[in-house]
């Protein structure tokens, strides 16, 4: 019985060691899962901070260049107004001459024989 009791005691010790090992493995898995969650949340925080800083940079860039866009638009509008005024001025100064030339061409009639008709004669 002594040997049998010793064997039973060894088996019991092995079972307890196996349970203890299973607990250790389970704790390691839980620790690993927790570390992954922590790493993901930390990475998400870093990504958000980086995104916020880049958004601020973009807004600053946009604000600094928006003024030049507006200034360019004002400049183009002024140039357009000047050119339109020049065209109106030229129109007003030349319209009478153009109308007179058109009337002269329409009213001026020089009766002459067609060139083919003169060759026949």
UniProtKB/TrEMBL annotation:
The reply on keyword Lyase is: no
Q: Which parts form a coiled-coil structure per UniProt? A: 14-56
Gene3D superfamilies per the UniProt record, alphabetical: 1.20.5.2950
Keywords, in A-Z order: Coiled coil, Hydrogen ion transport, Ion transport, Transport
What are the annotated GO cellular component locations? vacuolar proton-transporting V-type ATPase, V1 domain
Return the InterPro entries for the record.
Answer: V-ATPase_G
Any GO MF annotation of the entry? ATP hydrolysis activity
Entry-linked NCBIfam families = V_ATP_synt_G (TIGR01147)
Its function?
A: Subunit of the V1 complex of vacuolar(H+)-ATPase (V-ATPase), a multisubunit enzyme composed of a peripheral complex (V1) that hydrolyzes ATP and a membrane integral complex (V0) that translocates protons. V-ATPase is responsible for acidifying and maintaining the pH of intracellular compartments and in some cell types, is targeted to the plasma membrane, where it is responsible for acidifying the extracellular environment.
Q: What family classification does the UniProt entry report for this protein?
A: Belongs to the V-ATPase G subunit family.
The protein's assembly and partners: V-ATPase is a heteromultimeric enzyme made up of two complexes: the ATP-hydrolytic V1 complex and the proton translocation V0 complex.
Q: What is this protein called?
A: V-type proton ATPase subunit G
The major lineage groups are:
Eukaryota, Fungi, Dikarya, Basidiomycota, Agaricomycotina
